[in-house]
Specification:
single chain, mainly alpha, 13 helices, 62% helix, 0% strand
Length: 302
């Protein structure tokens, strides 16, 4: 799609891959600063990825980005690289589309390709990148791309809306939690959430766990405490059925989730909330039920 631009990368052979010299140096400096905590995490923004600043010779940056990503061990810097590569590849391809191809069709294909990668990485994060919420970067780029391309706005509005709804459904954000009767009562969906490592565990705990910031008898996800056991039963039923086929990383996330949920509903936690007037009889009744369910689930997975 962007052949004239990517050809600037030069002849790629088994013996030689052309890297952009300045990029390699910049990546090393930024990485060292982030790892040593001596440099602001925002320093990575100087790396080529933004549409208006890209030049044709920047195609040589891609092998450099991939070279570092392939061996990166620092999780914080790896997240930056993932975002940079996703945004860089999309913006560069769009900016240097081949003039001999029908532009409208190529632009549509580019958008739909990123949408497809959003769905793929939302449901099954790439192996080794479970903590990096890769799907969010595909969504962010597709959303910005749709806004920038007026020809796409009408045809892609429904796609963006579906992506937004599914993103919120699978990975609910605390500041956007919807009421429990918003139609998202398929609690088995949270198995997909738990495939996303620590961010996924945090999201499910935030949704179903004891909430210390809301008054009343509801969780952070606006779920009445009385409904939590039934919700967990549904989630646990899904986990039991699919646990053997999940990856070792997801299985570890599930066990960590159970451990943290037990701690969240520990009696000393609920008693502390009660003493501050933020709890009531329904929560005190639910705590032992939740802990019993979690204990039974943990035993079944042992």
């Amino acid at each position: 799609m962007a052949a004239p631009g990517w050809q600037k990368m030069g002849p790629i052979t088994k013996e030689c891959v052309w890297f952009h010299p300045a990029i390699i140096q910049n990546i090393r400096e930024i990485r060292n600063g982030i790892v040593s905590k001596s440099e602001s995490a925002s320093s990575w923004i100087i790396l080529p990825r933004a549409y208006h600043l890209l030049k044709k010779h920047h195609s040589r940056c891609l092998p450099g980005y991939l070279r570092f990503l392939d061996k990166e061990t620092n999780s914080e810097f790896r997240k930056f690289l993932v975002r940079i590569i996703i945004e860089f590849a999309g913006n560069y391809t769009f900016k240097y589309l081949s003039e001999i191809l029908p532009q409208r069709r190529m632009v549509s294909a580019l958008f739909n390709g990123y949408a497809a990668m959003f769905w793929k990485t939302l449901r099954n994060p790439p192996q080794g990148f479970e903590d990096d919420v890769v799907f969010f970067h595909f969504f962010r780029w597709a959303k910005l791309f749709q806004r920038r391309c007026t020809a796409l706005k009408h045809n892609t509005a429904k796609t963006i809306k579906r992506m937004e709804e599914e993103k919120q459904k699978i990975m609910p954000s605390k500041i956007f939690f919807q009421p429990a009767d918003d139609g998202h009562d398929d609690y088995g969906r949270f198995l997909i959430t738990l495939r996303h490592g620590r961010p996924g565990i945090d999201a499910v705990i935030g949704y179903m766990g004891i909430c210390t910031t809301l008054f009343g008898n509801i969780t952070g996800g606006r779920l009445p405490y009385a409904y939590v056991p039934a919700a967990l039963n549904e989630l646990f039923h899904t986990i039991k059925r699919k646990y053997p086929t999940e990856t070792p990383v997801t299985q570890k996330s599930i066990r960590e989730f159970l451990h943290r949920l037990t701690a969240n509903y520990a009696s000393n936690c609920s008693n502390g909330i009660s003493n501050r007037g933020k709890s009531s009889e329904p929560l005190r009744f639910v705590v032992p039920r939740v802990r019993g369910l979690v204990e039974g689930m943990s035993i079944s997975l042992a």
